[in-house]
From TrEMBL, chain A:
Coiled coil: none annotated. It is found in: Cell membrane. This is Multiple sugar transport system permease protein. Keywords: Cell membrane, Membrane, Sugar transport, Transmembrane, Transmembrane helix, Transport. The lineage of its organism: Bacteria, Bacillati, Actinomycetota, Actinomycetes, Kitasatosporales. It comes from the Bacteria. Its main location: membrane. It comes from Streptomyces echinatus. Residues 95-307 form the ABC transmembrane type-1 domain. Pfam families: BPD_transp_1. It is a multi-pass membrane protein. Belongs to the binding-protein-dependent transport system permease family.
Automatic annotation (TrEMBL), chain B:
It comes from the Bacteria. Its main location: membrane. InterPro entries: MetI-like, MetI-like_sf. It comes from Streptomyces echinatus. It is a multi-pass membrane protein. It holds the Pfam family BPD_transp_1. This is Multiple sugar transport system permease protein. GO terms for cellular component: plasma membrane. Belongs to the binding-protein-dependent transport system permease family. The chain crosses the membrane at residues 20-43, 89-108, 120-139, 159-175, 212-234, 254-277. PROSITE patterns: ABC_TM1. It is found in: Cell membrane. PANTHER family: ABC TRANSPORTER PERMEASE PROTEIN MG189-RELATED (PTHR43744:SF12), ABC TRANSPORTER PERMEASE PROTEIN MG189-RELATED-RELATED (PTHR43744).
Length: 317, 292
């Protein structure tokens, strides 16, 4: 890639030979002008990236080692922020909750759309209806979905318990019970986000060559065997991509716990991002917030790096 | 499309038992989708039409006894929805416009103008894809609260949404990849005709890029409309908050029916956008992902 791009000007010059080579000074000036113009186009975007992406990333690492109060000079404190955050009882709760949430979201939030997409791909009627309906919750603002489910989970007149009563089943505390709160939030996140996963996976399913299924059937493979030996291997790459994306997205969960449970009951739904928010805006401890951010950053960065590596190599192939 | 062979062969489906199984599954899926995705929306829309007593009643009434619209009118007036909707529109429109201008220009430069250190810059931009946006909210907030060198605060200013929105590596990369694939000879023909860089971008590249510009526009608008944590941080002034933040802040002490009505109103713009452009949006989601 790199080499052809560098060689391009040479071949172009050979294809259109100039009548007389211009003096060297002119050429240099023209190249400078070209560069100036190129950077003119780049300037706005570059400034925004520098200010709001690159600089904050560096600053997170710097402030993580400082006592930082807006308005006064920062003080270097070594690893004090990390140790303080580490010994916060909420720290382990937040990580445990975030990892459990991510794991549950993978189990529920991945299995359900996977099976739904498999079934939808077999249906030959009302295709547009299914696609629009499954994606509808994605377009509802996340805050509205969260408030909506908070209302459904209401122990009194909430729809969730009404449904259980209707079916003569014991009612649940849903998001208000320490044991059930996290699962309840996973249900909300799955409901709100699975449309995208279903649509992407559906597109992947449609690219599987039909002959593979035919051959498998001739070999006597039953339905489940065909799923296992044809569908899954053929879409392995997309499955892996969607999983990694989902992990990175769910590890940053904030809106659902903030709106529905406020981190409670008894810290059962405090997540890492929620804790970062609390450190910054409730405790005014920006050093602690940045120390936490750096930890989250390293973990998520590792997942994203794997994702990018995989997509990059697939793109080259 | 319907002719392509999938998991289950057409022969199996054609048999009486296959047909029965197909229609059973089909009906089950229709019911499931209606119950899981449409019913919650129905419940929300009708919940706002009930009286405060009726909405708290157990067992609930499936259809409102009398259709009252005062939930909606109260939400509109009491919660200052016009103000918050306007704030959201201003924030989304500005983020969209700036993204289109600056991301397109930068993507064009990186794709076609071969700036010095172009590869380094592109690498730096792509690296931000690895750093999930939410993990950097606190240092970004500190930056916005006190911009380096000029020491100005953008808090409570729509610029706090607009400018960070430009630093969208995903959209920029989408545009660059599209520009990379444009036929070289068309662009060179424009240059030979004496068109400058800006002219080429404006009257040759952009008209050819309508599909990708549409996708980027939708992504940009939806991202701002749906965002919560970032506007929650930067807009402490209630009068400037977008609808998402205002809803949560006001949800504490407002009547349930009024809150539900406000939730419905907050959802309408994006749901309408989706229903109008659903073909493009669904095609965009699926195309962007399978291309790899």
């Amino acid at each position: 890639m790199t080499k052809t791009a560098e060689r391009r000007p040479v071949t172009k010059a050979a294809a259109h030979p100039l009548p007389a080579p211009p003096p060297a000074g002119d050429l240099r000036r023209r190249r400078l002008a070209d560069q100036a113009r190129a950077y003119g186009f780049l300037l706005g975007g570059l400034l925004c990236f520098a200010l709001f992406s690159w600089y904050p990333a560096i600053r997170a690492v710097v402030i993580a080692f400082q006592k930082y109060t807006p308005g006064s000079d920062p003080e270097w404190v070594g690893t004090a922020n990390f140790t303080r955050v580490w010994h916060d009882p909420e720290f382990s709760a937040a990580w445990r909750n975030t990892l459990t949430f991510t794991l549950l979201a993978l189990l529920i939030g991945f299995a359900v759309p996977f099976v739904l997409a498999l079934v939808l791909n077999e249906l030959r009627h009302a295709k547009a209806f299914f696609r629009v309906v499954v994606y509808l919750p994605v377009m509802i603002p996340p805050v509205v979905s969260a408030l909506l489910w908070k209302w459904f989970y209401d122990p009194g007149a909430g729809l969730a318990n009404e449904a259980l009563r209707f079916l003569h089943l014991p009612t649940s505390n849903w998001s208000n019970g320490a044991d059930t709160a996290l699962v309840s939030l996973v249900v909300v996140a799955t409901w709100a986000n699975m449309g995208g996963t279903v649509l992407v996976y559906l597109a992947a399913l449609q690219s599987i060559p039909g002959e593979l299924y035919e051959a498998a059937e001739l070999d006597g493979a039953n339905l489940l065997q065909r799923v296992r030996h044809v569908t899954v291997p053929q879409t392995r790459f997309v499955i892996l991509m969607l999983m990694l994306l989902q992990i990175v997205a769910t590890m940053q969960v904030f809106t659902e716990p903030f709106v529905i449970t406020g981190g409670g009951p008894e810290n059962a739904t405090v997540t890492v991002l929620y804790l970062i928010y609390k450190y910054a805006f409730l405790y005014n401890d920006f050093g602690g917030a940045c120390a936490l951010s750096v930890m989250l950053l390293l973990l998520l960065g590792a997942f994203s790096a794997v994702y990018l590596r995989l997509t990059r190599s697939e793109g080259d192939a | 499309m319907s002719a392509t062979r999938t998991l289950i062969s057409p022969a199996t489906l054609a048999r009486p038992r296959g047909k029965a199984a197909y229609w059973t599954v089909f009906t089950a899926v229709v019911l499931l989708f209606t119950l899981a995705f449409l019913f919650p929306v129905y419940w929300m829309v009708t919940g706002a039409l009930k009286s405060p007593d009726e909405v708290a009643r157990t067992p609930p009434t499936p259809v409102p006894e009398q259709w009252r619209t005062d939930g909606y009118t109260d939400a509109w007036d009491l919660m200052q929805l016009p103000q918050h909707l306007l704030n959201t529109v201003v924030q989304a429109a500005g983020a969209w416009a700036l993204q289109l201008v600056f991301c397109t220009a930068a993507a064009y430069a990186l794709s076609r103008l071969r700036p010095a250190f172009g590869k380094v810059i592109l690498g730096g931009i792509l690296a931000t894809l690895m750093v999930p946006a939410q993990a950097l909210v606190v240092p970004r907030y500190l930056t916005v609260a006190d911009l380096p060198l000029i020491h100005t605060s953008l808090l409570n200013d729509p610029l706090a949404i607009w400018l960070p929105a430009v630093a969208n590596a995903f959209n920029l990369y989408l545009l660059k990849r599209f520009f990379d694939q444009l036929p070289r000879d068309v662009l060179e023909a424009a240059e030979i005709d004496g068109a400058g860089r800006l002219r080429t971008l404006w009257s040759v590249v952009l008209p050819m890029s309508r599909p990708v510009l549409g996708v980027v526009s939708i992504f940009a608008l939806v991202a701002v409309w749906q965002d919560f944590l970032w506007p929650l941080m930067v807009f402490s002034d209630t009068g400037r908050q977008p609808i998402s933040v205002a809803l949560v802040q006001l949800s504490q002490n407002i009547q349930l029916t009024v809150l539900i009505a406000a939730m419905v109103i907050a959802s309408i713009p994006m749901v309408l956008l989706f229903l109008v452009f659903q073909r493009h949006i669904i095609a965009g989601i699926t195309a962007g992902s399978t291309k790899g």
